[in-house]
Amino acid sequence: MKLYGFAISNFYNIVKLGLLEKQFEFEEIPTPPSNQAELLAHSPMGKIPFFQHGNCFLSESQAILFYLELLKPNPRLYPVEPERGARAQQIHQFIDLYVDPEARVLLNAMRNPEQVDNAQIKTCCERLVYNIQALSQLVEFAPFIAGEKLSHADLAAFMTLNFAQSMMQRFSDQDPLARLSGVGAYMDMMEQRDSCQRVLADQQQALANWL
């Protein structure tokens, strides 16, 4: 198995967490997004991550995670009970659509400070706070984000909420997680997992090198 991308990317790290939690052996291939034909052949939009297993190539993090689940159902990351399974998917999709993009704007602003639009940053921070507060309607922290057991939604939540909080601290005194009741204990619990410690350390090192 080969995972292509780089450790700054939340989507890359979510897949990496899935591989580690499933205890797959895999190789990481540092790869930036691009419009090069070689990358487009495996990732139609030129984005990372993309994944190779034998002759199977997949892009899009949620598709890759689902493939890993089908390949090795245990330990399970996709709840089989209908409501739990749908809730985990809803939370994961919400985070991908409404939390990650705002944090990504802040990352780009941090990388290119000469292009920072203060009004845009203020609006972005406000949206991030609002969107994470809206997320509170979906989550349980019982103790995991969609119930009693770890799911793919936790992989997305841990990486993206940590990333959003870290990015926003550079531009605002507000904590975007402040109105998400129970999130502190949840993040502490997730940080105790070997997979999370490894991926977070790799991301922080990559981010320091990139900036």
From TrEMBL:
Residues 81-209 form the GST C-terminal domain. GO terms for cellular component: cytoplasm. The keyword Zinc does not apply. Keywords: Transferase. SUPFAM superfamilies: GST C-terminal domain-like, Thioredoxin-like. It comes from the Bacteria. The keyword Transmembrane does not apply. Gene3D superfamilies: 1.20.1050.10, Glutaredoxin. Pfam families: GST_N_3. Residues 1-76 form the GST N-terminal domain. InterPro entries: Glutathione-S-Trfase_C-like (IPR010987), Glutathione-S-Trfase_C_sf (IPR036282), Glutathione_S-Trfase (IPR040079), Glutathione_S-Trfase_N (IPR004045), GST_Omega/HSP26 (IPR050983), Thioredoxin-like_sf (IPR036249). One of its GO terms (molecular function) is transferase activity. CDD domains: GST_N_family. PANTHER family: GLUTATHIONE S-TRANSFERASE OMEGA, PTHR43968. This is Glutathione S-transferase family protein. It comes from Motiliproteus coralliicola.
